[in-house]
Amino acid sequence: MRSRRTRPQGLPEVNLVPMLDVLMTVLTFFIIISMTLTGQQIPNVSLPMGGDASEATEANPDAEPLVIGLTNQGQLMIDSQQVSSSEMTQLAQTYLAQHPEGTVILKADESLPYRDVLVVLRSLRDIGGDRVGMATQAP
């Protein structure tokens, strides 16, 4: 005669592993989607390939950075609108006055000669922009 093992009456067993797998998948999905939606896209700008990610500096999380685009035709763009050099300087001065710890990010097209990028960097330096970052795309 076989002996039958009976479990004591109590709470049923709950296997949490499948539920945690689903939660981690959903969390990963939302992280990836949120990362792709946060970057400002500037038309006609193809970013150069970046270097090592450890070289990047952490931006101030309190202030939204001012993103300036420099298209392959040498046009300056802020918030997807074309601006002149003097308008860009004025907007950057206003931004830096309102956000003393704010960061300015320059997204310059990779096909531009570096001297065109240098002109924009010098104008930002002249108005006191000491926290200017260059945007690159991941390799």
What's the arrangement of secondary structure elements?
Elements: H1 17-38, E1 66-70, E2 76-78, E3 81-83, H2 85-98, E4 104-108, H3 114-126, E5 132-134
How would you characterize this protein structure?
By secondary structure, the chain is an alpha/beta fold. It has a domain at 53-134: Nucleotidyltransferase, domain 5, CATH 3.30.420. The chain is 35% helix and 14% strand. The protein contains 3 helices and 5 strands; from the N terminus they run αβββαβαβ. The protein has helices spanning 17-38, 85-98, 114-126; strands spanning 66-70, 76-78, 81-83, 104-108, 132-134. It has a 5-stranded mixed beta sheet with strand order 3-2-1-4-5, covered by helices on one side. It is elongated, with a radius of gyration of 25 Å.
